[in-house]
Amino acid sequence: MSESITDAGTIRFVDVYKSFRGGRDAVLKGLSADFPAGKLTYILGPSGVGKSVTIKHILGLLRPDAGDVWVSGKNMSTLSGRELAEHRKIFGMLFQNSALFDDMTIFENVAFPLREHTTLSESAIADKVTRSLSILGMKNGYDKFPNELSGGMKKRVALARAIIREPQILLYDEPTTGLDPVTRVTVDELIETLKREYRLTSLVISHDIPSALRLADQIAFLQDGKFVFWGTPEEFKNAQNDVIRRFLDADRMSFRVLQ
Ligand SMILES: Nc1ncnc2c1ncn2[C@@H]1O[C@H](COP(=O)(O)OP(=O)(O)O)[C@@H](O)[C@H]1O
Ligand SMILES: [Mg+2]
Predict the structure, then answer these.
(1) Which domains does the chain have, with CATH numbers?
(2) Which of 53, 124, 235, 256 is surrounded by the fewest CB atoms within 10 Å?
(3) What is the CA(43)–ligand 2 centre distance, in A?
(4) Is the CB of residue 29 less than 8 Å from the CB of residue 221?
C-alpha cells in the first residue's frame, strides 16, 4: 500500500499475530481491523484479552510477530527508530492515571510537548495552550499545580496536552476506569467535545458499556485474539455472541444494583 493523503488518520491491522514468553502466551491471533479516519471506535472485551497490546501496536511500542499494522499510510514494522519518533507526533494518548507532571503548572504540563518537539515562540505556545484548555472547558487557573485539581480537571489538562500537537489519532486506554460517576460523565463529555471539535480518529478502550453505546460510531469486541464483533452500538446491543451477551447482562446487573 502506498503512502497517500487519503490514508491520514486510518489504522489498519492485517492478520496480526503477537505472543509473549517465547510463543506460550498467544495474545493476538490473526487480528484484522480497519479503523476509519475521523470515527470514534470503542474497543471492548474481557480483561487481559489484548486491548492494550493492540494499542501498543498502533503506537509502535510493540511489533507484530506476523502481519502488518498500517497507521496513516505507514507500515509500523518497517519504520526505523528515528522515523518512529517522527511518526509519533500524529498520536495523542490519554492514560488511565492522567500522567501529569506534579511539579509543573497546568500551563507547563500542556506546553511540554511543544517545548520538547517544536521551536514555537512563547506567544504561539501561550495561544495554543489557552485554546486547547479552553476547548476542554478550562478557562483559567493555568498557574495551579495538578495536586490542586479535581479528577475531572486533571483529565481536562491531560487531554489538552494530548491534543496540543494537533494529532490525527487520539487513543484512550481505560479513561474512566476507577473514576467516580461524576468524573466519568465529565470524561465522556470531553471525548464527545473532541470528536465534535476535531476530525480525529479516536479509539477508546473501555469497560464502560453505557458510554460506548452513547458515544461510539462503532464498537469492536476483542475476544480470543481477534475482533469477533464489529458494528454500530445498535447492532452491539443485539449481538448474539455469548461472551457479549454475558458482558451486557453483567452491565445491566451492576446498573440495577446501583439503582
Ligand atoms: N510486554 C509484555 N510482556 C509479556 N506479556 C504481556 C506484555 N504485554 C501484555 N502481556 C500479556 O498480554 C495479555 C493481554 O494484555 P493486555 O493487552 O494488557 O490486556 P487488556 O485487554 O486487559 O488490556 C495479558 O496476558 C498480558 O499479561
Ligand atoms: Mg489494558
Answers:
(1) 5-258 (3.40.50.300)
(2) 256
(3) 10
(4) no
Q: Which ligand is nearest to the CA of 47?
A: 1
Task: Give the residue, by CA position, lying nearest to ligand 1 atom 20.
Answer: 48
Atom of ligand 1 at shortest range from CA of 21? 4
Among the atoms of ligand 1, which is closest to the Cα of residue 45?
Answer: 21
Backbone conformation region of residue 142, classed left if phi is above 0, alpha if psi is from -120 to 50, else beta: alpha
Render pLDDT for 96-105 as a digit per residue (tens, 0 to 9): 777 899 999 9
Residue 5's CB: how many other CB atoms inside 10 A?
7
What is the mean predicted confidence (pLDDT) over 223-238?
96
Closest CA to 162 of 94, 96, 214, 227: 94
Q: Is 17 helix (H, G, I), strand (E, B) or coil?
A: strand
Dist CA 136 CA 95 (whole Å): 17
- Span 140-186, pLDDT tens digits: 999 999 999 988 899 999 999 999 999 999 999 999 888 888 888 88
Q: Which helix (H) or strand (E) holds 183?
A: helix 181-197
User: Measuring from atom 9 of ligand 1, which residue has the nearest CA?
Assistant: 53
Residue 53 C-alpha to ligand 2 middle, in angstroms?
A: 7
Ligand 2: distance of its center to the CA of 102 in Å? 24
Instruction: Supply the pTM of this predicted model.
Output: 0.90
Measured between alpha carbons, how far is 104 from 225 in angstroms, rounded to an integer? 40
Q: How far is 9 from 195, CA to CA, in rounded Å?
A: 13
Cα separation of 194 and 100, whole Å? 19
Give the C-alpha separation, 224 to 130, whole Å: 44
Dist. CA 97–CA 176, nearest whole Å: 9
